[in-house]
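RESIDUES AND SHAPES:
===
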Amino acid sequence: MKLKRIVALVLIGAFALAGCEDGEEKTPKKEALDKNKHELVYFEQLANGDEDYPRVEMAYKDNNGKTHTYTAAGDKVYEHILKGKNKSPYVVKDGKKYHVYRTPYMTYDNKEIEGEVKDKGEVDSHD
């Protein structure tokens, strides 16, 4: 009986959490995209202890080439993955929100590698 109750509570919790997202991707306003689009220098999400959101650190260049850094809780930052191999990462500042457009961390292109192994020697590490 206890097992059924636990399973029921887990299922109810899972459905409740699934309903929290509205499913729509957040996007910046067109005005912000036109005026506040900047080249992304770096972007990292870091552990933030017991907080609900990770800490975000990023740097971007303004229109004059000056680099600005920003650190905040991740709830003010929205990530978007760029599609295409030759797209450059950028950030759009929309009020207090930041929209980061970055390349994927990993890509798989399934290209086969051909060649011939000529030496299987060990690599010597020098400490």
User: Anything to note?
Assistant: Strands lie at 37-46, 55-61, 67-73, 77-81, 90-94, 97-102. Helices lie at 2-18, 30-35.
